[in-house]
Design a protein that fits this description.
The chain has helices spanning 21-32, 37-54, 64-75, 92-95, 115-126, 131-150, 158-168. It is built from seven helices and no strands. It is 46% helix and 0% strand.
Length: 195
């Protein structure tokens, strides 16, 4: 739809620093085109004063004033020929986007349990029989149960947890459904004791 007199943001040039709004950007664009250097300087100082009032909550930072002048230089595309009170040579670094972080992708058999569960299952495989392994088995079974609930796989199925524990530990861990702790969050009767 193209109606004369209506100007939509989608049709306008994108803002370099949207936090200041389109009006400040328009002021900067006008300031760039002012032919008289003294008037241009006075206009730039006025714009920075307005920007300062818009960002009251950020005034506590040490280099607040410097950032405002850097932002002015960036919004003008470094075309604003004035006497800056600060060195703006590093202002371009503000606009540089950081490199994307590499996400550690591990190949895990079932994503809804997560990699930490599978790391613990690997540890369980090598642990000797005993109270410590039994306690860790109980804890990981409960975590698997919570993960199933979180991922919306319906009501937690103790038989599935028992089968998955056995499968993902290569048959080294065998527990029964009664060994999976009953937790009140899943509608079971046993309440957790509070210390």
């Amino acid at each position: 739809m193209n109606i004369e007199g209506l100007d939509y943001n989608t049709q306008r040039e994108p803002l370099f620093m949207p936090e200041y709004g389109r009006e400040i950007q328009q002021m900067v664009d006008i300031a760039v085109d002012i032919p008289n250097r003294n008037e241009r300087q006075r206009c730039a100082e006025t714009i920075v004063n307005i920007m300062r009032r818009m960002t009251i909550q950020k005034r506590s930072s040490e280099d607040f004033e410097h950032k405002l002048w850097d932002h002015l230089a960036l919004m003008s595309g470094f075309r604003l020929d004035i006497d800056y009170p600060f060195d703006i040579s590093n202002a371009a670094q503000i606009s540089n986007k950081p490199e994307p972080m590499k996400y550690p992708m591990k190949k895990i058999p079932v994503r809804h349990y997560g990699s930490m569960v599978f790391d613990t299952l690997e540890k369980l495989k090598s642990m000797p029989d005993g109270e410590e392994r039994d306690r860790l088995t109980q804890m990981i079974a409960n975590q698997m149960k919570r993960n199933l609930v979180q991922w919306g796989h319906g009501a937690p199925d103790d038989e599935k947890i028992v089968a998955d524990l056995e499968q993902f530990t290569d048959g080294r861990i065998h527990i029964s459904t009664s060994d999976v702790a009953k937790d009140s969050r899943y509608g079971n009767d046993k309440k957790r004791k509070r210390k």
